[in-house]
Amino acid sequence: MSTDPRAGEAGQYVDSEILQDLLSIRSSIDNIDAALVHLLAERFKATQRVGVLKAKHRLPPADPGREKAQIARLKQLAQDAQLDPDFAEKFLNFIIEEVIRHHQAISETSGGEPDPNAPFDWADHQ
Amino acid sequence: MSTDPRAGEAGQYVDSEILQDLLSIRSSIDNIDAALVHLLAERFKATQRVGVLKAKHRLPPADPGREKAQIARLKQLAQDAQLDPDFAEKFLNFIIEEVIRHHQAISETSGGEPDPNAPFDWADHQ
């Protein structure tokens, strides 16, 4: 029913009005995704700075108190924004896994070995 | 060295100046996380609308062409923003999994069974 390339497969199944609704929502999703990617890039720049700071000063890395506070705060924010709080927690954990991977790379590159007396493992995401 | 509650464990290990640097970066991370949560909430509102639209019009759900374009676009955006493009792809897939879960719930709630002639499974994330 449509040859609009933005329609994807949906163009074969619906009339023009419904398709316009769909394309309009998809366009919003694309805008949001662009914003998410840029914010994530900025977040990794920030955690990169934390990683360098900690490697330089041989700081103990993970901070359970900070992490707990972050999760509680994000879950509350999610609830206020009508986002599933459990998903917000899963999302934070997903990001943290990536940050840990980055920080391991920083630690290896800088040749900074973890302080054996440090109480936690050498990965900071905070 | 610090009793600032925001310092977490780090307060025990570094002097005040370094701690201030750390707290400043953490504060930026917290701001970014709040923005991410709100954008994610908005994204799920948009995909919820897509889910309802598709359930209502018994549209085929997943759209491989659209998905491929989304991934290529996000990877390019990530590259421009100096974010690992593979991470951007992983991130999109992580979100899509959650959207699929939501859409299955919509489909079950609305009693709308997938059209057996639809070429894809009943989960739209686009």
From TrEMBL, chains A, B:
Keyword Isomerase: yes
Pfam families membership: CM_2
Keywords assigned by UniProt, alphabetized: Isomerase
SMART domains tied to this protein: CM_2
Isomerase keyword on record: yes
Any GO BP: chorismate metabolic process
UniProt-annotated stretches for the region Disordered: 106-126
Cross-referenced InterPro entries: Chorismate_II_sf, Chorismate_mutase-related, CM_bact, CM_dom_sf, CM_II_prokaryot
Name this polypeptide is given: Chorismate mutase
GO molecular function, one term: chorismate mutase activity
Domain of life: Bacteria
Domain Chorismate mutase as annotated: residue spans: 16-107
PANTHER family noted in UniProt: CHORISMATE MUTASE
EC number: 5.4.99.5
